[in-house]
């Protein structure tokens, strides 16, 4: 992900999380995927307003929309969080295996020379 | 072997029985690199290696799994036998690869110190090579991740 796109992604996610209603909605979706009416129920705001919040969360990649027949379900998307962590896991794995190779190589060298 | 990980930095320390000069040579001699720097089943070709600060390198890593990566970078520090630092960018050459996963301008640093007759090697890999890029990302992501953890924690 080049830095420009990464920055846009971070900005969107950050702004999405900056609103308390959206944090509450996200919190609800973490517990279970839900439909718009279920999401709106705990809040004293219109379905329209909830839809707008969901749109922002979707654009930030934090929420995914699925269609089942005529119903739209929304669920929490872990990917943005996992992406930062996967760099660490993959990079550690890569270098650990390279350093194993280096160890084998150096030992083979020692047997040949000196 | 110790590992330290932050959001954007990993650090690995290992001890080798070879002398620092030998370990440093393994990292800087094209023939040596071809022998060990490649994941299992992959082939490495060193296309260019200009070993001096500001000098560039290019290595092609190809694998049986179809991977075809071009790794390029610039040497920042060349201090035999104690320190080698270089940028590390990966380009996926295979058609259809997910290029959003490519690594751009990360930074790798190798510190070598005598350890008895052997060498203690510390490898540090920073996801971002410039302080400002790292700071922007760190500020954005850490705040994001904190808020996200708070949200997910209340529901797990």
Spell out the key features of this protein.
A: 114 residues; 2 domains; 3 strands; rod-shaped; disordered N terminus; B: 156 residues; alpha+beta; Alpha-D-Glucose-1,6-Bisphosphate, Chain A, domain 4; eight-stranded antiparallel β-sheet
Write a structural description:
The complex is a heterodimer of chains A (114) and B (156). Chain A is an alpha+beta fold and 114 residues long. In chain A, 69% of the residues lie in helices and 12% in strands. Chain A contains five helices and three strands. In chain A, a hairpin with a 2-residue loop joins β2 (63-68) and β3. Chain A is rod-shaped and about 80 Å long. The termini of chain A are far apart. Residues 1-5 of chain A have low confidence and may be disordered. Chain B has 156 residues and is an alpha+beta fold. Chain B has a single domain, classed as 2-Layer Sandwich (Alpha-D-Glucose-1,6-Bisphosphate, Chain A, domain 4). Chain B is built from three helices and eight strands. The chains are: A alpha+beta (114), B alpha+beta (156). Chains A and B meet through α1, α2 and α5 of A and β2, α1, α2, β8 and α3 of B.
Give a concise summary.
The complex is a heterodimer of chains A (114) and B (156). By secondary structure, chain A is an alpha+beta fold.
CATH topology of chain B: Alpha-D-Glucose-1,6-Bisphosphate, Chain A, domain 4
| pLDDT < 50 stretches of chain A | 1-5
Radius of gyration of chain A: 23 Å
- Outline the low-pLDDT stretches of chain B: none
Q: Bin the strand percentage of chain B.
A: 35-45%
The CATH superfamily of the largest domain in chain A is known as Winged helix-like DNA-binding domain superfamily/Winged helix DNA-binding domain
* Average pLDDT over all residues of chain B: 85
Distance between the termini of chain B: 33 Å
CATH topology (fold) name of the largest domain in chain A: Arc Repressor Mutant, subunit A
Radius of gyration of chain B using CA atoms only: 18 Å
Of all chain pairs, the largest interface belongs to:
A-B, 42 and 46 residues
CATH architecture of the largest domain in chain A: Orthogonal Bundle
Output the CATH class name of chain B.
Answer: Alpha Beta
């Amino acid at each position: 992900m080049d830095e420009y796109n990464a920055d846009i992604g971070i900005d969107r996610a950050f702004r999405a999380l900056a609103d308390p209603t959206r944090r509450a909605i996200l919190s609800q979706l973490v517990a279970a995927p839900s439909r718009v009416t279920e999401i709106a129920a705990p809040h004293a705001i219109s379905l329209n307003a909830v839809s707008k919040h969901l749109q922002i969360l979707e654009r930030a990649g934090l929420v995914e929309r699925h269609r089942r027949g005529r119903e739209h379900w929304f669920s929490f998307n872990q990917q943005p969080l996992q992406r930062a962590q996967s760099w660490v896991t993959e990079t550690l794995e890569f270098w650990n295996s390279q350093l194993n190779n280096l160890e084998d190589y150096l030992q083979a060298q020692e047997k040949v020379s000196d | 072997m110790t590992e330290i990980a932050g959001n954007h930095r990993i650090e690995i320390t290992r001890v080798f029985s070879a002398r620092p000069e030998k370990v440093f040579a393994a990292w800087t001699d094209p023939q040596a690199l071809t022998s060990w720097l490649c994941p299992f089943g992959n082939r490495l070709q060193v296309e260019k290696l200009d070993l001096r600060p500001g000098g560039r390198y290019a290595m092609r890593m190809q694998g049986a799994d179809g991977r075809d990566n071009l790794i390029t970078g610039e040497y920042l520090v060349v201090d035999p036998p104690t320190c080698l630092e270089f940028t590390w960018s990966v380009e996926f050459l295979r058609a259809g690869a997910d290029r959003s996963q490519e690594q751009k301008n990360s930074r790798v640093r190798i510190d070598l110190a005598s350890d008895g007759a052997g060498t203690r090697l510390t490898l540090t890999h920073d996801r971002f090579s410039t302080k400002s890029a790292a700071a922007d990302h760190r500020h954005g992501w850490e705040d994001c991740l904190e808020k996200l953890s708070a949200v997910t924690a209340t529901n797990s």
